[in-house]
Each structure stands twice: as C-alpha cells, then as structure tokens.
Write a structure and sequence with these properties.
- By secondary structure, the chain is α/β, with parallel strands linked by helices.
- The chain contains 7 helices and 7 strands, in the order αβαββαβαβββααα.
- The protein has one domain: Rossmann fold, CATH 3.40.50.12140.
- The protein has a 7-stranded mixed β-sheet with strand order 2-1-3-4-7-6-5.
- α2 packs across α7 and α3 packs across α4.
- Keywords: Signal.
- Pfam families: DUF4159.
C-alpha cells in the first residue's frame, strides 16, 4: 500500500498541474483552522511569482487520514493544544518518511504542545535550528539572515527549526515569527506591505524547497 502512496507522491512532485496543498486538522482543542486566508494567499503569490500551478482551492486533511499521502506538503498552525494518537503519529511519520513535507507555524502558544507531539512521531529525532545558509532560505528568494520576524510577542528572535530524517529536511517549524499571520489578508493584521512581502517570499521558499526535495 505504501508503495502506491509513494508513487502518487512522486507523480505529484513532478506534475505541477496536479499540485495541491492542505491544512493539517488535528485534535487536542487547538485552533488548527486559524488563519483561513493565509494558505490561499500564499498559493496565489507563489503561482504569480514562481511559475507554479498550485490549486487555489485548499483543503483540510486529518492526521490519521490516508488522504494525507495525496499532498506533497501540508501546513499546520494554531495557538493551543495539539494531541496525536498513536495511529495519527504513525500515519504522519509514514507520510513524512515517504517524501511528504510539513510546515508548522507557531501562531503563539503552540510551542510546548507541538514539541511534545513531534516526539511521538519521531522519538529518535530532535528539532534542530536551521542555519542561515541552508537552501530553504535561498530558493527563489534570499534570506541571508534566516527566518524573518513577522509578529512580535515576547521580544524573542525568530527561529526556524527542522526535523531531518536520513539527511532530508522533512519538517520546518517557524517559531516566534508567525509567518502564516503575514500571509493573511492585509486587513486581518494590518501588517505593512514590506512585512507581508517578506512573509510571502519565505512561504514561497518553503513550498519550492518541498517540491524540489
């Protein structure tokens, strides 16, 4: 069964006409549905500026669903608790080691929960801070100083963390940045144009890196 999923992933990776992205739906009480305009806006920006052809009709997918394997990349955000069952942790693990990619955006308040749950998925792995010279910061857009700061919460610097499996970056976690807030409609957070552009460019880099790797 997994070989079929892997074949489908490979097909999706190399056929840009068929690309779709999804928001990860999880349990625990956290607002997985936060920032509803974020991903559609990011897709529109990436299609307009990076020659991609991603379906603008984004979907949600549950952690334990076989449909997860239909997407080369999924996005996850929220402010609160996250809870993966053993079945969900295994399904997410299988998805990521089969070629999938997960972007997690801490919308403030997610950190302690997502770190705990990622240990269920990959008990042998530890989130590592990604160096500024990593290719994820140097796709179509260059970020020589690493992850851009979009929203201020606790006066902490923005940090990009990742999980690496057999040398491949399979999960990117933006912390104290709020990238997905910067993708939302301008009227939601009233971010300046330059701030929104930084967030969208970094988001486009994430998509391009996931598609290329």
């Amino acid at each position: 069964m997994k070989s079929i999923f892997f074949f489908l992933l490979c097909f999706l990776f190399f056929n840009l006409e068929a690309q779709e992205l999804a928001v990860l739906k999880y349990s625990g009480g956290g607002d997985w549905y936060a920032n509803p305009t974020a991903l559609p806006n990011l897709i529109d920006f990436t299609n307009s500026n990076c020659n991609t052809k991603i379906d603008k009709n984004t979907k949600s997918v549950s952690v334990n669903s076989e449909d997860l394997f239909n997407y080369p990349m999924v996005f996850m955000t929220g402010h609160g608790n996250v809870l993966f069952s053993d079945e969900e942790a295994k399904n997410l693990r299988d998805y990521l080691i089969s070629g999938g990619f997960l972007h997690i955006s801490d919308n403030y308040g997610l950190d302690q929960y997502i770190r705990r749950e990622l240990k269920k998925v990959f008990p042998e792995l530890t989130l590592q801070e990604i160096p500024n010279n990593h290719p994820i910061y140097n796709q179509n857009f260059s970020f020589p100083n690493g992850l851009p700061k979009i929203h201020e919460h606790d006066g902490k610097i923005a940090q990009g963390f990742g999980l690496f499996y057999k040398g491949r970056l399979i999960c990117f976690y933006d912390y104290e940045s709020d990238l997905s807030d910067g993708w939302e409609n301008e009227t939601v957070h009233n971010n300046p144009k330059k701030v929104r552009e930084k967030a969208l460019k970094m988001g486009a880099n994430l998509i391009l890196y996931a598609f290329r790797n």
